[in-house]
Amino acid sequence: MGLSRLSMLVVIATIFLPSIAIATEFIVGDDQGWRPGFDYNSWAASKVFHVGDTLEFKYGVGEHNVYKVDGSSFQSCTVPTNSTPMTSGDDHILLATEGKKWYICGVAGHCSAGQKLVITVLPNLSPAPAPAGPSLSAPSAPAPVGFVPAPAPIEQGPWSTKNKNKRAFKRFFQHY
Ligand SMILES: [Cu+2]
């Protein structure tokens, strides 16, 4: 009956809509923060970054900084002369676009001592499997297949079950 399907929809929407909207904030190095002598490759390897997530670099003010660089500056630990570092000690960087991102500390010797981070940012609404549960692609196709059986006969009595379902479906999604 329509009601049980509706409640199923509510459950599905409750579970998956928030998981789309909530972005992750990654504290670089976790409790170790941003410092030389830490393996940021291993740190990043266990994580998946998406557009909309945030990196947070934590360090003592004046001890370190954060430069966003390109791949070759990353490899050679070259501090760019034409850009300004972030120096707040608690720098938040929104990952606004997909692709590779490189960050280094500009204090002499720190980058070559491992204070460098490269990550790959994936698209926001990736159809790739989510960490928990079924596909993220479900909400992008809000009309559940099979809810209103297709092909539905065009000519129907106004109080048919199918039309009731359609109205209930519309009412349900008016809340969004
Ligand atoms: Cu440093």
TrEMBL record:
Biological process per Gene Ontology, one example term: response to symbiotic fungus
Phytocyanin domain: residues covered: 24-123
Signal peptide: 1-23
Domain of life of the native organism: Eukaryota
PROSITE patterns in UniProt: PHYTOCYANIN
Compartments where located: Membrane
GO cellular component, one term: plasma membrane
Gene Ontology terms for molecular function: electron transfer activity; metal ion binding
Alphabetically ordered keywords of this record: Copper, Disulfide bond, Electron transport, Glycoprotein, Membrane, Metal-binding, Signal, Transmembrane, Transmembrane helix, Transport
Topology with respect to the bilayer: Single-pass type I membrane protein
InterPro entries found in the cross-reference section: Cupredoxin, Phytocyanin-like, Phytocyanin_dom
PANTHER family named in the record: BLUE COPPER PROTEIN, PHYTOCYANIN DOMAIN-CONTAINING PROTEIN
Protein name, UniProt field: Phytocyanin domain-containing protein
Species in which this protein is naturally found: Arachis hypogaea
